[in-house]
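Hi R.,

Here's the chain you asked about this morning:
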Amino acid sequence: MEFVFIYSKQIKKLNFFNMKSNTEDKKDFFPYGKHSIDEEDLKAVRDVLLSDWLTTGPKVEEFEQKVAKTAGVKFGSAVNSGTAALHAAMYAIDIKPGDEVIVPPITFAATANAVVYQGGVPVFADVDPDKLLIDPEKVEEKISSKTRAVVAVDYAGQMCDYDALKEITKKYGIYLIADACHSIGGEYKGFSSGSCADLSVFSFHPVKHITTGEGGMVVTNQKELIHRVKLFRNHGISTDLHQRQKKASWYYEIKELGFNYRLTDFQCALGITQLKKLKSRIHQRNYLAKEYDQFFKDVDGVSPLKKEEYISHAYHIYVVKLDLGSLAKSRQEVFSFLRNEGIGVNVHYIPVHYHPFYKKTFNTFKGLCPIAEDAYERILTIPLFPAMTEEDVKAICSKIKNAVQF
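And here is the predicted structure, written out as C-alpha cells:
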C-alpha cells in the first residue's frame, strides 16, 4: 500500500531524505517519528464529515470496541488525548489530595502530571539500567501508607515486568495502572498490551503506532472503572445524549466534576482504519529495529536498550545509549552533528523530577533517581517509523557512525 502524508490541505508523496526541515539552513531532514495516512483513512474521515454525526456518534463506540478487542479486554473509553486518558484513570481510581502514586522518572511529564491534576503526589521510583523500565524493587521501597497506585510506563514500546508489579500491588492492596502509550500492539508473555493492569491507557498522537490526530483511550476489564471514566470525560453528566433520547428526556445531572475530554467521530473513523494497519506496522518497526540492532553490534560506544525475550516489542521509538567515556564526546556533540546532517534525533526524556515545577512543588532534586539520571545524559532516540526502508536505515547508520567516530 502506498503511504501518503497530509500537510495542511495538500497530500504529498515523500522521499524522506528530501524532506525540508524548519531549520535555518533548510538542510534535508529525517524525523525521528512520522504518521502515515492512506486513501482508506481519507475516505473514512470524509464519510463521517458528510454524515449526521461529527461527535458522540456511532464511530466512537465502534472504535472503543475495536481497541478493547485488540487489547484483549472488555471495555474502552475514547478521550481526546493520552494525557486525558491518564487523568481519567486517576479520577477512576479516586486519587484525592495527598494520595501518593508511584511513577518512573523516564517518561513524558503527563504521566506524573495526571496525578497532580487530582491533587495527588507523584513519587518517583528509579528504573532498570538496561531497559529504562520502572524497577519493581525500587517501587516496593517507595510504598507508604499513602500509596494508592503504581503507574508502569512501557517505555519505547517494551512492556514492564507486570508479573512482579502485580505481585507488589496485590500485596499492598493498591492499583496498577499501565501507561501503555508506547506499547499498543505489543505483548508481555503472550498477554496483549492493555490487558496487564487494572487500567491501561493508550495515545493516538501522530508519532504513535496509529493516530487519530490527537486522541487516547482507557481500557479495562472492570465495568465500574470504565463507567467512571465515561462520566469524567463528559463533564460528570449522569446520562449521555443517547440515553436521554431513548427516554425522550432532556433531564440530566452533574454527579461529580468532570471535563470535556470527548473524541470526535471523524477522529474515531480515522482510528478504526488506522487500527487495521497496526499489525503490519509493528512488524515493520521490528524489522527496522533488527537492522539497527545488527548495525550497532559493530559500533563501539553505542548500544541499544536491552530487549527481553518474552516481550513482543512494539518499538514506538528506538533508543540507544552512548558510552561517553569511550567516545570522548558529549551527547550534545553527537546530537548536534546528527541534526546538522539532517537526522532528527531526539531525547526521550528529561527526567520528570528535573523539571522546575516538580522541584518547586514537590522538592525533587538531582540524585533522587540516579540510574535514570545517568541514562538521561547518554540516551538518544533515532528515527524509526513504518514508512522507512532498509536503505533509510543504512543511510542513517552511516551518519551515526560518522558522528561517533570523528
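One quick note: The longest helix spans residues 278-296.

Cheers,
M.
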